[in-house]
Amino acid sequence: MFFICLIQLMLTVVNCYNRLSTINSVDGYLDICMDGVYQKEAPGPGELYGQCAEWKERNCCYENTTKSLQKPEPWQNFNLNHCGQLSPMCRGHFLQNFCFYECSPNVGPWLVKVNGMESRKERFYKVPLCERECNLWWKDCKHDSTCVKNWGTDFDLSSGTNTCPGYSSCKNFTEIYTDATDFCENVFDRTWKVVQNSSEPCMVLNFHNTNPNYNVAKQKAQSIYSNKSNTVKFGTMLYLLVVIMLTIPKM
Ligand SMILES: *[C@@H]1O[C@H](CO)[C@@H](O)[C@H](O)[C@H]1NC(C)=O
Ligand SMILES: *[C@@H]1O[C@H](CO)[C@@H](O)[C@H](O)[C@H]1NC(C)=O
Ligand SMILES: *[C@@H]1O[C@H](CO)[C@@H](O)[C@H](O)[C@H]1NC(C)=O
Ligand SMILES: *[C@@H]1O[C@H](CO)[C@@H](O)[C@H](O)[C@H]1NC(C)=O
């Protein structure tokens, strides 16, 4: 019994280290913001600036962050214009993506812990992006230029902002990425997973009034939670079975 207690204590300590693994309700996944210096503790209402304003009913960011997006590059030490000016249409999609990244209150089910990033302790990973959204983004960017495929990992950061590494040269997006899906999934290190509209609930970057992404997050949260509680139930049954088997011979 002592050893079982000890093991349980150790598991609790390990779990506390990652707050994500202690979430034990559907709402737990829905009332959470990414753990970052620019994010709120939990989603709430708040005025937001410019193209981020659609998230004003419920968001994880502050107005000052959304205002700073409108300033000239670089933004949070990131320079979109690393191969000459991006076209205004293409730039608009990237800014909308940054609004989502900083402000979306619907990413709880996709958060993962990361180490070594200054501005955040978590990121989100493989969030389902509607194919249609990805296609629009790609259509407006495919004639622009960049030098690396993965903007999350491939740049030279030694100067403080991202620059093209020595081995690279500026090329059209179409030479770097094979198609829309390759672009959307790789440009930010698999933040997004492109899904066909009909195959799975998916996120949009632009909306008016009601945020449709809430339902996408809710369905995923329910799925994770029911799988998690099944695992717990199975674990408890196994534990009881072992206890019974150990007890019976002594009776
Ligand atoms: C932005 O606003 C929030 C909340 O008002 C504040 O806590 C934070 O320090 C501000 N950040 C900057 C860079 O001004
Ligand atoms: C890149 O795309 C532009 C616009 O579509 C085109 O004019 C140019 O020739 C392309 N450059 C290369 C190197 O393919
Ligand atoms: C895909 O989803 C978007 C956003 O929900 C919607 O506006 C669009 O009509 C859908 N497209 C198709 C082909 O179903
Ligand atoms: C939950 O389990 C089902 C069945 O094994 C699986 O298809 C689904 O992807 C799981 N959901 C999550 C969020 O892991």
UniProtKB/TrEMBL annotation:
InterPro entries: Folate_rcpt, Folate_rcpt-like. Residues 1-16 form the signal peptide. Keywords: Disulfide bond, Receptor, Signal. It comes from the Eukaryota. One of its GO terms (molecular function) is signaling receptor activity. Pfam families: Folate_rec. GO terms for cellular component: external side of plasma membrane. Residues 32-203 form the Folate receptor-like domain. Belongs to the folate receptor family. This is Folate receptor.
